[in-house]
Amino acid sequence: MRPGESWRNWGRTEAILPVFAARASTVDEVVEVVRFARQHGLTVKTVGAGHSFSGIAVAPGVQLDISGLDGLLDVDLPNARVTLGAGTHLHRLPDLLEPLGLALQNMGDIDRQTIAGATSTGTHGTGARFGGLATQVVALTLVTADGSILRIGDTSNAELLPAARLGLGALGVIVEVTLQCVPAFLLRAVERPAGFDEVLDDFEARATVADHFEFYWWPHTDGVMTKTNTRLPGDAPREPLGAVSEWLEDRVLSNGVLALICTLGRVAPALTPPINRLATRVYGNRTFTDRSHEVFVSPRTTRFAEMEYAIPLEAVPSALRDIRRLIDDRGWRISFPVEVRVAAADDNWLSTAHGRPTGYIAVHRYVRDHHVDYFTAVERIMRGYEGRPHWGKIHYLDAEALAAVYPRHADFVAVRDRLDPDRLFTNPYLDRVLGP
Predict the structure, then answer these.
(1) I need a labelling partner for 366 at 20 to 30 A (CA). Which of 76, 91, 147, 394 fits?
(2) Could you give the percent of the chain with pLDDT greater than 90?
């Protein structure tokens, strides 16, 4: 335990000076921190990699770093399950799982987060038959507000699992996570440019036929970049990208050139549309086959702010066309592409995909650009499609509005009342989205 230091998240959208900061490397140390906070009338919030753009990890009282709780704790090979320390970063998982012949069923395109942070905020990848990362959680262990240890899984307290898998950090401190894995597999990636209307007119077919489909639309253009990934057995032949090709596409074009586009757009906004049109002609036209994590994950070094909304799958084309009209009508110059992904319905209470096949639309702005006007206007569009905001990304809804689109919102709050009646694990964000 030490005096707090200034903290900012990766996207530079949130900052705080905690009263105290602590780092735990054992479960007993987590218990000590929780009891200390309770005795001193302080709240306690865990912080992972800081990759949430919302205020979900902001810690005014005690900021608890659990990165010391990491690594492989247990393996159940017959059932393809592994138990990890909650502070294990996603980018470490391939090295831990590959020797076991295992992999995560699905991943997002960023792997800097901790496993507890990623599952607790609803991190997801794409694929109409696959759920978000939290759907792969089969058990977890919490330190609750009274300092006790609570195991939740299919053999103990199973009724709490749909709440705790994606718990926003509101139910306790997660110290262990057990994941359901799958046999290691490859992905054949086909990335192609396509037309805006061509893809939207055929969106549901593209999204549901492919194992994993997503696309990026560059504002001010008629072009999108599609990514279609097909699952292959782990012993299928690999055809990875060459070192030069990978460096050019993933480092130079995806990050370096994007940063340049954003910088030029700030200096001379009129250049944004022609630069975006150029990007649609030079970016994203390749085919390769590699290990699943090598395809799912992409490096992200250009900082940005992000809002993402989940809407019914069939509503995606109409909603994206509404966003295009919005940008054109307002005369904004948007340098960052709009990202579209999909996910299967699941039963986690606060999942953005709860109870319905889901499409995701994510909008971004460069870290130095003003994002509020753009994001609030997009949010109004998304609310017209029964949109649910990603918990780890920027949105402006409160508990009343969220209860209208999350059918089990009240049930989750009831579990919170049971496990943390005195709100030891709250912060201003959780007070807003769950109620005080």
Answers:
(1) 91
(2) 86
